[in-house]
Amino acid sequence: MLDYNVFHTIAWPGAYAWYFFVIGISVALFFFSALSWFREEFQPLRKSGFYLSFVLLVVGGLLLISDLSQPMRFLNMINPAYLKFDSPLAWGSLNLITFGIASVVYLFFMNKGDDGLAKKAAVIGALLGLGLPIYTGFDLTVHQHRPVWNTPLMPVLFVALSLLSGAAVASFLAKGNEKLMVMLRRFMLWAGGATAAMLISLLGTTAYGGSAAEITFMFMTSGTMGMIFIGLGMLVGLAAPIALLLAPVGRQPMGVMAAGVLLLVGGMALRYAILIGPQIVHTYY
Amino acid sequence: MSEELRMSPRETRGKAGLRRYGMVIDLRRCIGCDACMVACKAEYDVPLGVFRTWVPYRVVGKYPTVKKQFLPRLCNHCDDPPCVRACPVGATYKVEDGGFVLQHYDRCIGCKACMASCPYNARFMLPEHRTRTNITSVVDKCTFCYHRVIQGLVPACVQTCVGRARVFGDMNDPNSEVSQLVARHATQTLRPEQGTKPQVFYIGADRNMTEYGRNIYDASPEQDDERAVFNRNHKV
């Protein structure tokens, strides 16, 4: 064989997966903090969950900016003269900024002790936060030629992953509070079950898609990417913690925290594989 | 009874008073000399490792009846370009009269959304350091030689093509050579199912080259080696 081919780089590297991971946790922690105004069990997360959410939001924003090849031009994203609403990225940047503003407002009223306004800011912030994992998935979905990405499951999958990773981190902030651990365990099980169902259907539709989808399935389930996606993501990071949570030990705080560690590993591995895997096939054509 | 073709607001094919430049590549005439790649590199100081146009080939058949199948590639200057839609800051735009899909280099933030959205891999990131050109760390691509075409010249790759395999012209002019070629020959476009309405038409393209082939299941050792070198140089 004397074929000549020009290979191409993948457009979005692994740094984006870290952003997806960090921002997903940030949003979920804000959600738990907001939930504390309505459910007594989440009370311990009101401040600690929010503060960590805010720190992760800043880290996520910096990750996103640092991955631009022209980081100093990130302001173009909020320049009304340049902003183009056809692009999901434009909506995402506005969503990120409004979520940041809502977080600051929430912090202000919470520290001022104005519970009424803090509660309202929490609800608005939680709704804006929900937009972030939705936009993350939508950002991938709009690329019509990419198998796996181009499915309506993506936004829902990223919401489920966000709740999963957020509940995992929250289990460490809960400091063994039993009522909270019960609620977090339920979140982990429901979000984990939803994620598993979506991943299985995603694998099925990808395996039986066209040739590009079929090759993408091959890349995502074999070699190093297969180890990351199936091994770390689905087995170690999803099936194992669900099994652990269903076992008697999974009802103890330590069991929930151990499941949390596995879920964090799986959450990162799944985001990485879903981001990188579907880009590999196009580097050959 | 005829019905007017409904198009997206971006499309300009068939619009009166607007030119819609396109390229026809007659693969029966392509000899794989790569002069188009060299002319393009010279015209734009395209850095090593990236290409505005490239000519992959496959060797098919069994000795003694073997042949090389070429498929010159470049930006398809889609009539409905997904890269324009993906760009959050309007750095990628379409010139209405002519249909060129171009870049505002000073506006590009390097988010690579356009690269992710392009089904043709026509876009690439310029390196941080270049010897003669100070446009760096932004996304670049073929411009259909906009600067030459507005002066009445044809793109550099078309100018240099020794076999006259590449033909360039206004697709909206029914008397242009490109329109005549598309009207008289069976032509193919790449990834027509994506709805991008590409404006690069191929005559005599082989499906082994235009479609996602399964040959990467059993890649040759040479291809694996090339891939490993590429990954090393591009930190994949």
Please report the distance between the alpha carbons of the first and last residues of chain A.
Answer: 17 Å
CATH superfamily of chain A: Formate dehydrogenase/DMSO reductase domain
**How many strand elements of chain A?**
0
Q: In CATH, what is the class of chain B?
A: Alpha Beta
- If helices are DSSP runs of H or I spanning 4 or more residues, what is the number of helices of chain B? 8
What's the helix count of chain A? 9
H/E element string of chain A? HHHHHHHHH
* Binned strand content of chain B: 15-25%
Summed over residues and divided by their number, the pLDDT of chain B gives a mean of 91
Strand order of the largest sheet of chain B: 8-1-10-9
Strand content of chain A: under 5%
**What kind of sheet is the major sheet of chain B?**
4 strands, mixed
Characteristic key phrases:
A: 285 residues; mainly alpha; 9 helices; B: 236 residues; Alpha-Beta Plaits; 8 helices; 17% strand; globular
Structure description:
The complex is a heterodimer of chains A (285) and B (236). By secondary structure, chain A is mainly alpha-helical. Chain A has one domain (15-284): Formate dehydrogenase/DMSO reductase fold, CATH 1.20.1630. Chain A has nine helices and no strands. Chain B has one domain (21-234): Alpha-Beta Plaits, CATH 3.30.70. Helices cover 23% and strands 17% of the residues of chain B. Chain B has eight helices and ten strands. Chain B is globular. The model of chain B has no long low-confidence stretch (mean pLDDT 91).
